[in-house]
Amino acid sequence: MRWELDWLENRARLSPNKKAIIDEDTNKVWTYGEVNKRSSSVAEWLKSQGVKKGDRVALLSPNDISYFDLLFACGKIGAIFVPLNWRLSVHELTEIVLDCTPLFLGVHHQFQNEFRSLQTNIAHSFFVGGSSYDEIATHKGENTHTDVISEHDPLAIIYTGGTTGKPKGVVLSHQSIQWNAINTILSWNLSEEDVTINYMPMFHTGGLNALSLPILMIGGTVVIGGQYSGQKVIDSINRYNCTIILLVPTMYHMLIQCEEFQESDFPSMKIFLSGAAPCPLQVYEAFLTKGLAFKEGYGLTEAGPNNFFIHPDDAQIKRGSVGKPMLYNTIKLAKEDGQEAAINEVGELLIKGKHAFSHYWNNELATLETKKGGWVRTGDLAKKDEEGFHYIVGRKKDMIITGGENVYPLEIEHWLAAHPEVDEVAVIGLTDEKWGEIVAAFIVQKHSHSIDEEDLKAYCERKLGRYKIPKKFIQVDELPKTHVGKIDKKKLKEFSNQT
């Protein structure tokens, strides 16, 4: 293996006794030297069991040290790590297993029922999180390095959420994972003093690549978070002196409603990051009121996930902006005709860089549709202002065309979310004979009583053009969410069609 690809071993040489990983639930601490030895031991064991370069090694587990063990172990021997989304049904997991055909499956004991349904499709398996696995991870073995691994070889396959169809296996090479980390470290000014706690699921790119791997590469500390709650995260941020954290908007929504949020000053925190979905402006207000730095990021499994940087001061002035492209990636906004969008004109967001994915596993057609001319077509719409700050407008597929006018749901969602009686909101287009589509808003109210529809319309008229005002307001108890906390608009449309 080329020396620069096994950066964990190099970091362990530089910082052998530095705290690398802490488990929030057990308070167990692993140094960089210990993390590297664990992954080397697991790599040796996998090789002894017949795992070769290119073989897939899957994992079904809650957030746990085994994610790092297996990712780095696969990197050392040329195998491909496949973290599985444990929130999926057994049927969905079976489809993924049949697609990637892992030689080995690591299973946490709490998923034994799922394992019994999956094991007929798996050649070999082992359990993580127990004493037998600890013996594997701490066994002293021989050097497992090989000279046949290149930066373009696959290191991981991360399956997408499947909100637009069947999950696709995103193949990430050593290069793409390493360059996302390098780009993040340099563009976000991370250092060995940084500490993060990770509540994002580690089967997701946000849990592995957004902060965990960049912080480990630079020599900081990653705390593996357990079950999320607003009160718990506040306690852990202060207990571990965290400096940076990434949460999704749903998590922030829970956080700012905690009494402890109002009482804590978060003295160690440099920045709160939000990702995975556009963040309501009320969250910005909550952090601004407390004088805390808060900003949004943008990414996707196929590129990064980190692509932009915005200074916290700019984030308060440029509300909703994800900032400017980072050091080592290029951004372009393309119109339908392929021409580049002008200033403040909406176009599809295209991304290019060494952090981009290689291809979709067993899906050449989807790869050709997404990667064109070296650019990753994100399917997201964005615009850029005169100073070069980018704003995500929404998903291309979510754009509503009503009476020939283009409507971007995010603009309406931001305005309705600021209504004092609205807790959460999602806007979609519904098929209509007269208008083609009409704008419909799903509302979760803050209090038990319903909100008057005429009041909502009058509120919208204060800010929005007439064609943007929802023709339907549908009040619901809660909004459906995906496994990473995004509002599931596909399910909302299915619900609307049924009713």
Provide a descriptive summary of the structure in words.
The chain has 499 residues and is α/β, with parallel strands linked by helices. It folds into 2 domains: 7-384, 3-Layer(aba) Sandwich (Rossmann fold), CATH 3.40.50; 399-498, 2-Layer Sandwich (GMP Synthetase, Chain A, domain 3). It has 18 helices and 26 strands. The strands form 7 sheets. Strands 14, 15, 16, 17, 19, 20 and 21 form a 7-stranded antiparallel sheet that branches. It has a 4-stranded mixed sheet with strand order 2-1-10-9, sandwiched between helices. The mean pLDDT is 91.
CATH class of the largest domain: Alpha Beta
Mean pLDDT: 91
As a whole number of angstroms, the C-alpha radius of gyration is 23 Å
Going by CATH, the architecture of the largest domain would be: 3-Layer(aba) Sandwich
Overall 3D shape: globular
